[in-house]
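Good morning,

Attaching, inline, the backbone tokens for the sequence recovery test we're adding to the shared suite. The designed sequence is right after.
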């Protein structure tokens, strides 16, 4: 809503005074100028529903595109980055013999993926040798090396092999084995008895049957085999931990020798499986869920060969579907896109191929991205904001009366050890051994999968590389890694609206500062607090502090469990607990940095006080629309609450928000019993 400049000037002195004394600011300051670019939903009070107030107009003007399950400000940024990457890849895909090796790799991978005519002409032929391999095996003795081969192709049948830091020795890399091989999005999809879950399983069986038929099975056989796949995967799901249990690191750490692993699962030949990867005898392995592997072992012992072949055939076709002919792509989208997520149409092939190239050659593509689209001043300003947030968190920790002095000291020591990864890695990954063949889309995908698995396994037994990144530079995401004790903010995330070089510190502290505080406080959330400053699983809290922590955390779990995700589905306050703790802590810490930053400075910009710009900054980047299907799916599997509650749930706990917008006692955005940890 636009207001005359004279009105803004007339209100400035009054608003300046009341803001400085933290009283109720004049409401005229809550109306932005045209320069701000913001459109507020003035039909609702910010004290009643701040998310609707900030996002209502955007939500109305930005319906969900037909090729998306949801649409948000962050998805706008993601698409913008994809378009940028697409321009880089289009230029690199010209078949020019003078291209650099890096341009040749990313360009030929992208060009091969995008060449729909060539892929269509080949049909199932690129997968035929692998399907024949599955038909040829005649004994369970052959199963272990066969599964090992499938795992190199990105087919994670039964379980997934990888490497990770040792939970209790963060300097060491060990092998890891964990659950995989279930085609439905979550283990609860197999077990829940509500009508929607039942309908999803029926649709899944039909989908599996259709895919097996496309792979060459007669229709009647494919239907029977699809039912067998569901039965086998349901047995796997019953043995797997649920999403809430997986948040407890103690339940995911069971270090074993190869001999102990073999004893746990005597009917699976681990020696033959690991030999396929040249595993050394000294490899130690974290079996994340022993009961799950025991279930795999029982299934292998009791399931006949034809059913095992069927399951492996399905897993192979499922993993490869997006790079096969149109019929496979369409069937894959019909189930996972249309039925699971509520999408109406498939994304353009070029966009899908940009994403595939980013997954396969992310740092090679990312290097080209940051050279043009992430200037040095963006990195420098981000680092300054990180410093301000770290300083605020240290001040906050030092004043927490519910923590003992010893626990406060250790929390501060952990904060001092946090490493900050901003923009892009210091050393770029070498893809020289990855063979990309122009015109071989599926082969490129399989070789990229094998390359990545070999890269990960090569780390076992070596010192941890603390400079390594787990995401690509163009990615629109940020994260905290409790075992590395680091935060990562890729260049792709550090773009408007998450971070804007053209805006002032109040806006950027509200948007980016909130996110930085969020990631830092992950080190002290219900999972992160169990690791010390070096990334070791360690009990460093005084028992009385743990009890008080749990009491305060329960306040958040109860608060968010009261919110409705969609229809009759509630937000899972325990599943989302870590993110909710981080949201609330991040907002408080960032606001502390705001107060420190704006001492003695001019306050009004675009008709808003810095406090108001702070709260608007985060909210306006959280605007989103979602299909009901996506809402239902994320309520079951996503550790993040819906964005509406990541704004209203957080700000309603903050007296600073109440003061900034003059909210009265009893208003919906003023919780009577506020939750607070940091």
């Amino acid at each position: 809503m636009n207001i005359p400049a004279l009105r803004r000037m007339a209100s400035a002195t009054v608003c300046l005074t009341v803001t400085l004394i933290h009283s109720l600011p004049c409401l005229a300051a809550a109306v932005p100028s045209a320069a701000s670019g913001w459109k507020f939903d003035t039909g609702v009070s910010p004290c009643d529903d701040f998310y609707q107030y900030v996002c209502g107009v955007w939500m109305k003007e930005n319906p969900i595109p037909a090729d998306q399950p949801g649409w948000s400000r962050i998805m706008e940024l993601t698409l913008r980055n994809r378009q940028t990457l697409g321009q880089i890849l289009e230029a690199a895909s010209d078949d020019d013999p003078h291209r650099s090796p890096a341009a040749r790799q990313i360009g030929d991978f992208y060009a091969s993926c995008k060449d729909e005519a060539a892929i269509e002409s080949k049909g199932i032929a690129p997968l035929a040798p692998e399907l024949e391999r599955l038909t040829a095996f005649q004994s369970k003795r052959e199963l272990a090396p066969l599964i090992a081969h499938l795992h190199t192709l990105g087919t994670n049948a039964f379980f997934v092999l990888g490497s990770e830091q040792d939970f209790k020795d963060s300097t060491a890399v060990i092998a890891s084995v964990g659950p995989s091989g279930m085609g439905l999005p979550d283990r609860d999809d197999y077990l829940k008895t509500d009508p929607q879950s039942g309908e999803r399983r029926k649709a899944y069986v039909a989908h599996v049957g259709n895919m097996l038929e496309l792979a060459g099975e007669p229709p009647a056989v494919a239907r029977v085999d699809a039912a067998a796949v569901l039965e086998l995967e349901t047995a796997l799901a019953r043995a797997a931990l649920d999403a809430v249990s997986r948040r407890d690191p103690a339940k995911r750490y069971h270090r074993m020798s190869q001999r102990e692993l073999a004893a746990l699962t005597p009917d699976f030949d681990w020696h033959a499986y690991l030999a396929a990867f040249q595993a050394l005898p000294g490899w130690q392995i974290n079996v994340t869920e022993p009961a799950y592997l025991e279930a795999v072992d029982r299934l292998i012992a009791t399931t006949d060969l034809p059913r095992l072949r069927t399951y492996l055939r399905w897993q192979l076709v499922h993993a490869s579907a997006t790079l096969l002919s149109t019929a496979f792509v369409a069937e894959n989208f019909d189930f996972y896109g249309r039925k699971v997520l509520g999408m109406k149409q498939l994304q353009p092939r070029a966009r899908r191929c940009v994403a595939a190239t980013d997954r396969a050659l992310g740092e090679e593509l990312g290097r080209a991205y940051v050279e043009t689209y992430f200037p040095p001043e963006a990195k420098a300003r981000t680092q300054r904001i990180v410093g301000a947030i770290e300083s605020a968190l240290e001040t906050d920790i030092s004043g927490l009366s519910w923590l003992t002095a010893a626990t406060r000291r250790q929390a501060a020591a952990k904060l001092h050890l946090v490493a900050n990864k901003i923009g892009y890695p210091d050393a770029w990954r070498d893809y020289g051994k990855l063979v990309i063949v122009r015109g071989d889309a599926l082969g490129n995908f399989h070789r990229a999968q094998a390359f990545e698995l070999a890269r990960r396994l090569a780390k076992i037994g070596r010192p941890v590389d603390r400079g390594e990144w787990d995401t690509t530079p163009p990615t629109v995401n940020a994260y905290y890694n409790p075992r590395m004790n680091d935060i990562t903010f890729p260049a792709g995330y550090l773009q408007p609206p998450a971070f804007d070089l053209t805006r002032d510190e109040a806006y950027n502290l509200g948007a980016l500062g909130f996110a930085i505080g969020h990631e830092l406080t992950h080190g002290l959330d219900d999972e992160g607090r169990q690791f010390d400053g070096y990334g070791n699983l360690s009990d460093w809290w005084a028992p009385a502090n743990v009890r008080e922590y749990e009491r305060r955390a329960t306040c958040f779990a109860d608060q968010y469990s009261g919110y409705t995700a969609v229809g009759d589905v509630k937000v899972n306050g325990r599943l989302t607990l870590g993110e909710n703790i981080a949201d609330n802590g991040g907002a408080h810490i960032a606001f502390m940095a705001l107060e420190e930053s704006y001492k003695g400075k001019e306050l009004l910009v675009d008709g808003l006080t810095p406090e108001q710009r702070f709260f608007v900054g985060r909210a306006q980047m959280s605007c989103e629309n979602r299909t009901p299907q996506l809402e239902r799916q994320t309520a079951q599997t996503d550790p993040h609450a819906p964005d509406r509650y990541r704004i209203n749930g957080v700000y309603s706990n903050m007296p600073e928000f109440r003061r900034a917008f003059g909210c009265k006692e009893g208003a919906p955005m003023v919780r009577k019993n506020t939750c607070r940890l940091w």
